[in-house]
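thought: fold this chain, then report.
action: predict
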Amino acid sequence: MALTNRYRSATGTGTLAALILVLVFGSPWYADWATDNTNPNTAGGWWLRLLAWPHWRFDSDDSLRNILITDLKAILVVVMTALFLYLLPGSQLARARGTLSQFFAGWGAYIFAGGFAALLTTLFLANPSLLGAFRSASEGAGYGLFVGWIIGLATLGARRGTR
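observation:
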């Protein structure tokens, strides 16, 4: 029997969508493809490159610390998406399934997750600075702003929690 909306929660579907986004578009293969085959001076090329922002990798010429920070950022985006989807009251307080509050709660959760994941991982860099943390957080929030609508669509129509 296929799972229906009766069994889906907004937190679960949004987290699953975030995990798929990070696993697929954050993969080294996609990131390399986007770098080699897109033009950053076009809107489409910029957006395809943006999808690879919370990337992860297995091997690189970078130091182990930088690799772990990059992987931690990708993990934190997914974990913090789940946290913010759980904490944002819009989807839980909506009177009916499928309302716009669920969409905006999912979108907002991804914006917050991207910003906070980037901010927290900046603390682990070799020479962290406040300006670097702010720049990194704005980069993560920008990623959430332009990609988070996908999470919003995933949470749309899902169960809001306990009844």
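thought: worth noting. DSSP finds seven helices and no strands in the chain.
final: tokens above.
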